[in-house]
Amino acid sequence: MEWVYQCRNLQEVRDQIDTLDRAIVSLIAERGLYVQQAADFKQPGDGAEDSKRRDQVMRRVTRLAGELGADAALTAKIYREMIGHFSERERAALLAALPDGNAA
C-alpha cells in the first residue's frame, strides 16, 4: 500500500495502529448492527445462517484481500469467525422470538 503514512519512529507506528484498531472495532460494531437489522427481516423458524450469502461474502472478502494487499488466509479466518459469531447471535434471537422459545 503506497498510501500508508510513513512513520518516523516507533511511537508514530503505534499511534497509527491504535487509530486503525479503533476504526476496525467501530466497523465491527456497525456490521453487527446491520446483521441485527437483517435478523429483524427474517421470520422465527427461518435459518439464521444463509450458506449461499456466507459463501458470497467469503469469496468477496478473499478477493478484496488480494486486491488490497492483505493476507487472504488471515482475512478469511477473521471473517469465518465473525460470521459464525453473528450467526449464533442471530440464531439465538430467532429462537427467542418463537412462541415457545424452542426450535420447531
UniProtKB/TrEMBL annotation:
Biological process according to GO: chorismate metabolic process; salicylic acid biosynthetic process
Highest taxon listed in the record's lineage: Bacteria
Annotated EC: 5.4.99.5
Cross-referenced SMART domains: CM_2
One example GO MF annotation: chorismate mutase activity
Annotated ranges, domain Chorismate mutase: 4-94
InterPro entries hit by this protein: Chorismate_II_sf, Chorismate_mutase-related, CM_dom_sf, CM_II_prokaryot
Root EC class: isomerase
Keywords: Isomerase, Lyase, Pyruvate
PANTHER family in alphabetical order: CHORISMATE MUTASE
Protein name: chorismate mutase
Organism: Vogesella indigofera
